[in-house]
UniProtKB/TrEMBL annotation:
It is found in: Membrane. The chain crosses the membrane at residues 36-56, 63-86, 98-119, 126-149, 161-179, 191-211, 223-241, 262-285, 305-331, 362-379, 385-405, 417-436, 442-460. The keyword Membrane applies. Residues 479-492 have a biased composition (Basic and acidic residues). Its main location: membrane. This is Amino acid permease. PANTHER family: CATIONIC AMINO ACID TRANSPORT INTEGRAL MEMBRANE PROTEIN ROCE-RELATED, INNER MEMBRANE TRANSPORTER YGJI-RELATED. It comes from Paractinoplanes ovalisporus.
C-alpha cells in the first residue's frame, strides 16, 4: 500500500505508543481528573434517559409481560460490545473512543469514516435529546404547576413553533459547564444520576408495595418472536455506555477504572430496568402501558392510585435527559478533539484551555452548532441515523479487539475480553442483526453521509494528517497493512 512518494497511504495505522505519547504534549493533553465513581455515573447518565420512561410501554405492547426478558436479552446483546470497549479503553487510554481504536487497528481511512459517523451520531443525538428535554420540561410544568410554555418558543418549526428555546437553553448551559472543566461536569452529572435513580427507586418501591400477579398471564403472548422484536426496540434504551470510553484520556487510573465503569454502568442500568419492568407489569397491564405516552406515570396512577406521581416521573425524566445531554455532548467534544489533534480536522481546534484543562474553543463551536440544530432543524428523519451509527461503531470496536489480539499480541491489556474471538464475534453478529432490521431509507442517508465524509477526507484530512506530515520524510513505508512494522509509525 506504499505510495510512490514514500508517504503513508490511506490505511496507515497509528502505533499505540505514539497515540499515548501525544496525550502528554503541552497544549494538547487533557487533564486527568475523573475516577471510577464519576466514570460509572457518566455511563449511567448516558444510558438512563427517556428510554426507560417511554420505551417500556412500546416493548410491553410487543412482548406482553415477557418484556422483562426483552430487557435482559437487550442487555446481553450490549454486553458483548461493552466487553470489547472495556478492553480497548484500558489498553489505549486516549480520547476518541471507537475512532481512536480503529485508527490503531484498521487504518486512517476507516478511522476517519467511523469518526465522521460518530460526529453525526453524537451531534444529532444531542440535538434530538435537547428537543425531548423541552417537551418533558413542559410536561413537568403542566403536571406540577398546571402551566406550560407557549408552542411558539417551545417547539421547532417542524412541530408548529418558531424557535425551541428550552432546547437551546439546555445545550448552551451544558456547553458552558463542559468548558469549565471535566471535574465540575462529572460532579453535576453524579448529582443528576443520583436524582434519577431515586425517582426510579421510588417507582419500584411503590410498584412492589401494590404488586399483583394478574397481569402476568399470558406471559409471552407472541412467544420468542415477540421477545426478540421487543428486545430490538429496547436495545436502544441501553445505548450510551460507549460514551464512557471517550473519557479515557481524563481517567485517573484508566487501566482499572474504565473497564469497571463501562461494565458497571451497564450492570446497574440492567438491574434498574428489569426491576422497573417487573414492577410496571405488577401494577398495570401491557395494554395500559402501551396506551400511554408516560407509561410509568400511568402505571402508578391506574395501578397504585397515585395520581400525583406524574409530576415525580416527569421531574425524573427532565433530570435524566439533562444528564444524557451532558454525557453525550462530552463524548462528542472528545471525539472531535481527537480527530483535530490527529490533523484530520483543523488542528488548531485541539488546543486545550490552560485555565480549565478542556478544549474550550472546540466545545463552544460545537455547542452553538448543536443549539441551532435543536432550535430550527427538522430532526424526525435524521435522528434515525443515530441507531445505525452506534451499531456501526459497535461492529468496528469488536473487530478492533480481534485485530489487535493478532497484530499486537504482547501489548499490555489490563482488561481482556474472555473467550476472544468468540464474544467479539457475537457482538458483531448482534449489531449486524439489528442493523439489518433498519429501514432502507436510513441506510441511504447513512451512505450519503459517509460519501460526503470521504470527499472531505480526500480534500483535507489526507493532506493534513499528522501521521502523514510526520512520516512523509521517513523512507520505507512498504508494509502499512502490518501495524507491527516500524515503518508504520512505531517509534521502536
Amino acid at each position: 500500500m506504499a505510495t510512490t512518494s514514500g508517504r503513508p497511504g490511506i490505511f496507515a495505522v497509528r502505533d499505540v505508543r505514539s497515540l499515548i505519547t501525544e496525550t502528554a504534549e503541552e497544549g494538547h493533553g487533557l487533564k486527568k481528573a475523573v475516577g471510577a465513581t464519576h466514570l460509572t455515573a457518566m455511563g449511567v447518565g448516558a444510558i438512563i434517559g427517556t428510554g426507560i420512561f417511554v420505551v417500556i410501554g412500546e416493548g410491553a405492547g410487543i412482548a406482553g409481560p415477557a418484556v422483562i426478558l426483552s430487557f435482559v436479552l437487550a442487555a446481553v446483546a450490549c454486553a458483548f460490545s461493552a466487553l470489547s470497549y472495556a478492553e480497548l479503553a484500558s489498553s489505549i487510554p486516549v480520547a476518541g473512543s471507537a475512532y481512536t481504536y480503529t485508527y490503531a487497528t484498521l487504518g486512517e481511512l476507516v478511522a476517519w469514516i467511523i469518526g465522521w459517523d460518530l460526529i453525526l451520531e453524537y451531534g444529532v443525538s444531542v440535538a434530538a435529546i435537547a428537543v425531548g428535554w423541552g417537551g418533558n420540561l413542559n410536561a413537568f410544568l403542566d403536571a406540577a404547576f398546571g402551566v406550560a410554555l407557549p408552542d411558539a418558543i417551545a417547539k421547532s418549526p417542524e412541530d408548529g413553533g418558531i424557535f425551541n428555546l428550552p432546547a437551546v437553553f439546555v445545550v448552551l448551559a451544558i456547553t458552558f459547564l463542559l468548558i469549565r472543566g471535566v471535574t465540575e461536569s462529572a460532579r453535576v452529572n453524579l448529582v443528576m444520576v443520583a436524582v434519577k435513580l431515586v425517582v426510579l427507586l421510588f417507582f419500584i418501591v411503590v410498584a412492589f408495595a401494590n404488586f399483583g400477579t394478574g397481569n402476568f398471564q399470558p406471559f409471552a403472548p407472541d412467544g420468542v418472536d415477540g421477545v426478540t422484536a421487543a428486545a430490538a426496540v429496547i436495545f436502544f434504551a441501553y445505548i450510551g455506555f460507549d460514551a464512557v470510553s471517550t473519557g479515557s484520556e481524563e481517567a485517573k487510573q484508566p487501566a482499572r477504572d474504565l473497564p469497571l465503569a463501562i461494565i458497571g454502568s451497564l450492570v446497574i442500568c440492567t438491574i434498574f430496568y428489569v426491576l422497573t419492568a417487573v414492577g410496571a407489569i405488577g401494577i398495570a397491564s401491557p395494554d395500559q402501558l402501551e396506551g400511554s405516552d408516560a407509561p410509568l406515570a400511568a402505571a402508578l396512577d391506574q395501578g397504585a392510585g397515585i395520581s400525583w406521581a406524574a409530576a415525580i416521573l416527569a421531574l425524573g425524566a427532565v433530570v435524566a435527559i439533562t444528564s444524557v445531554v451532558l454525557v453525550i455532548m462530552y463524548g462528542q467534544t472528545r471525539i472531535f478533539f481527537a480527530m483535530c489533534r490527529d490533523g484530520l480536522l483543523p488542528q488548531r481546534l485541539a488546543q486545550v484551555n490552560q485555565r480549565y484543562g478542556t478544549p474550550a474553543r472546540l466545545t463552544m463551536i460545537l455547542g452553538v452548532l448543536i443549539a441551532i440544530l435543536a432550535a430550527l432543524v427538522p430532526l424526525s428523519e435524521i435522528v434515525k441515523l443515530v441507531n445505525i451509527g452506534t451499531l456501526f461503531a459497535f461492529v468496528l470496536v469488536n473487530i478492533g479487539v480481534i485485530v489487535l489480539r493478532r497484530t499486537r499480541p504482547d501489548m499490555p491489556r489490563p482488561y481482556r475480553v474472555p473467550w476472544s474471538p468468540v464474544l467479539p464475534i457475537l457482538g458483531i453478529a448482534f449489531a449486524v442483526y439489528l442493523m439489518s432490521d433498519l429501514p432502507w431509507d436510513t441506510w441511504v442517508r447513512f451512505v450519503v453521509w459517509l460519501v460526503i465524509g470521504v470527499v472531505i477526507y480526500w480534500l483535507y484530512g489526507y493532506k493534513n494528517s499528522r501521521l502523514r506530515r510526520e512520516q512523509s520524510a521517513t523512507p520505507g513505508w512498504a508494509r502499512e497493512s502490518d501495524p507491527r512494522t516500524p515503518e508504520d509509525g512505531d517509534p521502536s
